[in-house]
Amino acid sequence: MNCIFITNRDTILILEVDIYNRAKETKIEESLETLAETKAEIEFLVVCKCERRVRVPKVKYIKINDIKNIKL
């Protein structure tokens, strides 16, 4: 994970910058499982250069060229 934010709405926002598709799905899944124990709302964003071949459910994938169009 590159960044973890805790918002004033008790939401945990996780940002993973994965430009070259090197982040392992197991790393993402384990992070989600561990943070689920907090009972907080979790939002996981992965910023990538290309489409990911394997997608993990409950994760939002954002292409780096589309960052300016994001609405959270």
Summary keywords:
72 residues; alpha/beta; four-stranded mixed sheet; 1 helix; 35% strand
Summarize the structure in words.
It is a single chain. With 72 residues, this protein is of the alpha/beta class. The chain has one domain (3-69). The chain is 17% helix and 35% strand. The chain is built from one helix and four strands. The protein has one helix spanning 25-36, and strands spanning 3-6, 11-18, 41-48, 59-63. The chain has a four-stranded mixed sheet, with helices on one face. It is globular. 3% of the residues are buried.
Order of strands across the widest beta sheet? 1-2-3-4
Order of helices and strands: EEHEE
- Termini separation comes to 19 Å
- Fraction of residues in H or I helices: 10-25%
Summed up, the domain count is 1
Q: What is the percentage of strand-forming residues?
A: 25-35%
Q: DSSP helix count?
A: 1
How much is the average pLDDT? Answer: 86
Radius of gyration: 12 Å
How would you characterize the largest beta sheet?
A: 4 strands, mixed
SS elements, strand count: 4
Shape: globular
Instruction: Provide the structure class.
Output: alpha/beta
Low confidence ranges: none
Write the layout of secondary structure elements.
Layout: E1 3-6, E2 11-18, H1 25-36, E3 41-48, E4 59-63
Parallel strand pairs: 2-3, 3-4
Antiparallel strand pairs: 1-2
What's the gist of this structure?
By secondary structure, this protein is an alpha/beta fold. The chain has one helix and four strands. It has one domain.
